[in-house]
Design brief:
The protein has 15 helices and 15 strands. The protein has about 400 residues and is an alpha/beta fold. Strands 7, 8, 9, 10, 11, 12, 13 and 15 form an eight-stranded mixed sheet that branches.
């Protein structure tokens, strides 16, 4: 199935899970910022809620409504057949995501999600990458705060450095934000699946082709004081360094030997130590079903921070890149990372796949690999900062 065979589908873009917290923010962003000729629809299992959402959208009368349910694979297949691009917010993805990935891979529809779950991404590569390559579908995971600022930020930093030489990039994340019930549910589920996550990573490693003549690593690093950013650097065990590593494997511009490390940057040592202890306690509690249920009940999926709280939230990711005798300091920054900016990143990535002139890719790809410069420019135009702070 070629990409050209998809042009007669009814919709350029379908947003699945549109009535959830981030889904509704994404729908409103699309209604306010998408080109007028965008043919799009909102999808989910509750048509009544979808209709009410559509009524709230500017120009909503032109937005389609599609019923689809993760427990009914036929509805997901129909959704994929109706769209050139499918964007889904329905997680935890390792529990609810695979049938839609399979439908998109099989029908040649491009797929985007907001997952931060390494196990899910690895399983989808093993099970559906080959079919997506056959049909031309692009399967792009982690299209929100996980992992767009980090993936495109590392890509942007590499572009400031010499070509054809060994390169290193370190990313330092700071943020002030709250999170939603859906995010909490995904995080707790991920923490409880440590063994299965490792097994999926090993299975992926058996399937991935080797890199002849090139080396790419993303070691965890160790806690340290990072004078280059004036903060304590704590290794962040998120999906982000894995995504950066995959971009570096796919793109020769990262050089013959590339290393990336990913940190939280905390200015005060007591705060850093408290954060490590808190994460450890939550991770331990997530192993016990009663404790995991209790934590999950504190914030239900669909709940999230208020508009006032989001308006005060912000993020900054600073990068230090070195290679070929040069050193560069860059920054990616914006507003509320978990919701307002995630909705923006997600919507712009979907529009980028639908409309922009992009490199020919297929299968499971990263944002840098599939959309690189085009998505960076879209996000800059939408108010997210990509800048070179200093270089020498």
């Amino acid at each position: 199935m070629s990409r050209m065979s998809r042009t007669d589908r009814p919709y350029d873009l379908v947003l699945f899970g549109a009535t959830g917290f981030v889904g509704a923010l994404t729908a409103h962003y699309l209604a306010a910022h998408a080109p007028r000729d965008l043919r799009w629809a909102v999808a989910g299992r509750d048509e009544g809620r979808l209709e009410r959402l559509r009524e709230d959208l500017p120009g909503g009368a032109d937005v389609g409504v599609l019923r689809a349910d993760v427990t009914e694979p036929a509805t997901l297949r129909a959704l994929a057949e109706h769209a050139r691009v499918v964007a889904t917010t329905v997680g935890p993805y390792v529990l609810y995501g695979e049938e839609l990935v399979a439908a998109c891979a099989d029908t040649g529809a491009d797929y985007l999600d907001l997952t931060g779950e390494p196990e899910f991404v690895d399983l989808m590569y093993v099970r559906h990458d080959a079919r997506a390559r056959e049909t031309g579908a692009r399967l792009v995971h982690a299209c929100g705060f996980d992992s767009v600022p980090h993936d495109l930020g590392a890509y942007f930093t590499v572009r400031q450095l010499p070509e054809g030489v060994p390169l290193t990039v370190d990313g330092y994340v700071t943020a002030d934000a709250a999170f939603s019930g859906g995010t909490l549910a995904s995080a707790l589920n991920q923490m409880a699946r440590g063994r299965r996550m490792l097994a999926a990573a090993r299975e992926r490693a058996r399937h991935e082709p080797r890199l002849p003549g090139r080396r790419v690593t993303a070691p965890a690093g160790a806690p340290r004081y990072a004078a280059e950013v004036g903060a304590w650097a704590l290794p962040l065990p998120t999906i982000d360094p894995r995504i950066v590593r995959r971009s570096a494997r796919a793109l020769e511009r990262y050089g013959p030997d590339f290393r990336y490390r990913h940190y939280a940057a905390v200015r005060r040592l007591p705060v850093a130590l408290g954060g490590v202890a808190a994460v450890g306690a939550v991770a331990a509690a997530a192993q016990l079903p009663p404790a995991r249920r209790w934590l999950s009940d504190r914030l239900k999926p669909g709940d999230g921070p208020s508009a006032g709280k989001r308006a005060k939230s912000w993020f900054s990711v600073r990068f230090v890149g070195e290679g070929g005798g040069r050193r560069v300091f860059t920054e990616v920054a914006g507003g509320d990372p978990g919701y307002d900016e995630t909705a923006k990143m997600f919507a712009e990535a979907a529009l980028c796949l639908a409309f922009d002139d992009l490199p020919p890719t297929a299968g499971q790809v990263t944002t840098a690999q599939a959309m690189g410069d085009a998505l960076t420019e879209r996000l800059r135009a939408a108010g997210i900062t990509f800048r070179v702070a200093a270089q020498r």
